[in-house]
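Predict the 3D structure for this chain.
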Amino acid sequence: MKKLPEVNESFEELYRMLLAPIKSKLLLTGIELGVFNHLSEPRSADAVAEAIGAHPENTRLFLDGLAASDLMVKKNGLYQNTEVTQTFLVEGSPTFMGQMFTFTVQMCNPVLNDLPKLVKEGPPPPSPEADMGSEEVMLQSAISMANNERSGPAKQAVEIVSGLSVFQSFKKMLDLGGGPGLVGIAIVSSHPTMKGVIFDKPAMVKVAETFIKEYEMEDRMRVMGGDYLQDSIGEGYDLIWASGTLNFGKDDINSLMRKIYDALNPGGVFISVHDGLTHEQTKPDIMVLNWVPMALMGQDMRFDQGEIADSMLRVGFESVRSRTLDMPMGPMDLDIGRK
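Done. Predicted structure below.
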């Protein structure tokens, strides 16, 4: 008699992976339909359906799916946002992340749809459309980047910088590749007199200028437009901050690091917050998965843990302190170098 196989493992985790796209589609559809805008207070499925102009029964089924995904709560037949969805998925909020989530999926989907082909044939020839560093792509993401910075990273940056023993002595800082500039604005505003510069592509710093005006920092903040891989980034800085941007200079990181070093005053501080892959580039999982689409397209700009710190020491930084920083989008390497 043939015996059944003895199985000591469960395929539950694999099955849950298959269902994960349903969760993400529920989330994205909720954003697209503006469902979360109507659930700051408890409401019935019929009320939500009327508000968004949708089919009542399918709206109820859809809301149940969101509740099953912990994207809202259901009690006594009424639905309401969770604290997380209320904070990040209600349009008009300065911490609204819906635009960024949608943009991220739009960037990843073409790659994921071609995944078997990319694995078998390798990356396609380089094209401007695939360039994450292009000004068009960066402009599309500018506002969502700003909301991301307001949703935690800017506050974390202030805590890091203000905790330095030399913080009060700072007179001038640079937010390198600062995008919309909310991190630089937050750091400068936390200091009584320090002034700051936001450096990024010309089109991006135009966006930064709008936020400088919005936060009434015109007397203490200015912008510089250019390509920091090719152009001067200025000099005489006591602090240079760079977060999630040095990847564009990975191919010649030492030259970029030398430029940063030379732009600092003696005793100046450079702070880097970037990805740092471990376990033979398989961890942290959220960082590895985040980079997979771009890497498959031939834009492998990932850093291994310690790679930036090693470059800092090579170009002459007197000391470098490193630790892992928990960020909303995954753990990052925090490297603090002193000239």
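The chain has a mean pLDDT of 94.
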